[in-house]
Amino acid sequence: MTEVAWFAALCDDDYEFLGVADPALQSSWDHCRDIVLRAEANGFDNVLLPSGYALGMDATAFAAAIAVETSRIKLLLAVRLGELVVPQLARQIATLQQIASGRLVINAISSDVPGETLSSEARYQRTTESLAVLRTLLRGERADFGGEYVTAHVDAPRIAVDHPHNPVVYFGGLSEAARQCAAESCDVYLMWPDTTERMRAVMREMNDRAAAFGRTLRYGWRSHVIVRGTEAQARAAATRLLSRLDAQDGAAIRAKSLDSQSAGVARQSELRESADDDGYLEPHLWTGVGRARSGAGIAIVGDPSQVSGKLLELRNAGIDTFILSGYPHLAECDLVARHVLPKLRSAKVAERLP
Q: At 327, is the secondary structure helix, strand, or coil?
């Protein structure tokens, strides 16, 4: 089954003109609540609640509030594992899961503590250890774990004992350490946009890595979308989105993100530099978003058939989870729901290529 998620801009990432702050689109309870409710009404399966230390709102507090205002949509909560004590996190997640009637899923972020800088290898080892302890406690079992970075000798919180569960964990990262962590610890390996052939190669490698742990993985794609009635209109909308961006402001926005030096961000920069003069890596993959955004910096741009065709190409390559977004998020949510979701829902899955 194909899962299609939208993005709640909790981290001050909503614009009419990329890089130009708009108070009406700044992260707030009212604005982000509207995005999640619109995504649920529009038929999206899931919504990513992103998390950043310096930017926007706290995702966990927001998840608790929005859980009681929604009834169907899953809540993909980004959890910055480096900043949290794992037994406390287990109690929070178990509580949120009860509030959300089982709709909570986890996007594990291998973060530093604000102000701290660990090596990539150390951060991902800490993430692997954190997820091992977290899963044990959420199953309602006692954790006796002595790792290099995480030590826990503690019973599961009562709420987890009474309501044991094993939440689906989404995770992304391109470095060697990140791939090993994902193979051992996650359920859905999220990838930022790249060429389809490159993504197939990554999935083949990750299948082999996961098999070494006796595990299998699902795969996800995280990108932006600009869909309009015609290709010309979609490309014009992309041009308009960047029309007021100052290059220095864009660089400053990218630098604010705590993941700005990651391997994934470096790959997005490499793809942006290899694009044509209009920013297109392929006919419908546009790298312009990355000029003012760290992280996933590529959008699928085109008419309804072109956008859905690209997503179906990716689905047939082995991706079954899409986390999409667009600017402004409310307006693009409506457009994607109207023009793209019906085509994805009705299309048959082709035989997947190796």
A: coil
The answer to whether the bond into 328 is cis (omega within 30° of 0) is: yes
Q: Give the pLDDT band (50/70/90) at residue 302.
A: very high
Identify the residue with better confidence: 53 or 21: 21
3-state secondary structure at position 151 = strand
129, 147 Cβ separation under 8 angstroms: yes
Tokens, residue 183: 């193979």
Q: What is the pLDDT of residue 353?
A: 43
From the options 3.20.20.30, 3.10.450.50, 3.30.420.40, 3.40.50.2000, give the CATH code of 3-222+305-331: 3.20.20.30
Rounded to whole angstroms, the Cα distance separating 272 from 133 reads: 38
Ranges of each domain in the chain: 3-222+305-331
Closest CA relative to residue 190, chosen from 282, 345, 76, 329: 76
Confidence (pTM): 0.92
